[in-house]
């Protein structure tokens, strides 16, 4: 699969690296410097390269949007037409100093994104775990009991593709329903962040849902 990374910071850089190591063709884009993109591509291996947002999105089967909420308009403009593209967003609608959500309760950042690109297939995923745990989960992906990762969206094909990427990254995908459920998963991500960055034990934190049946 061809995957374009729009936003090659902590989340985008690590997820792009994992996707490349899992065998996908990856294009890293939209970082602070071209040098960083080149370094990420080199470290990710032969399946990865650096490019512009337009190059990352143009021939991609899926696009990972991993930029700050305040940069959505800029990166979308640079990426160009995303019609019919599967856009997996791991971004949260945070304010400038990342202290609070600016969208919530009656809508979500994922729904706001879908309105900006109405012809794309938007799925919200990967935003409920800290970036620090991603490589550890990938490295232990062959375990029988994997950590969970929730995702949601309105498009069946987009959700199937996202679920495959979640499995490739070492998680057990949990379908939370339509995109409007991001109204709950985005605040949940802040809870996970609180436990990861303010709790004991460090940020290498994941979660797992289990069903108990008699």
List keywords for this structure.
single chain; 214 residues; alpha/beta; eight-stranded mixed β-sheet; 8 helices; 8 strands; globular
Q: What is the count of DSSP helices, taking H or I runs of 4+ residues?
A: 8
Main sheet attributes: strand count, strand direction, barrel closure: 8 strands, mixed
Overall pLDDT metric: 96
Q: In percent terms, what proportion of residues is strand?
A: 15-25%
Structure description:
The protein has 214 residues and is an alpha/beta fold. Helix content is 38%, strand content 17%. The chain has helices at residues 10-21, 34-44, 53-58, 72-79, 109-116, 134-139, 156-168, 182-198; strands at residues 2-6, 25-29, 48-50, 62-65, 86-89, 121-125, 148-153, 172-175. The protein has an eight-stranded mixed beta sheet with strand order 3-2-1-4-5-6-7-8, sandwiched between helices. β7, α7 and β8 (172-175) form a beta-alpha-beta unit.
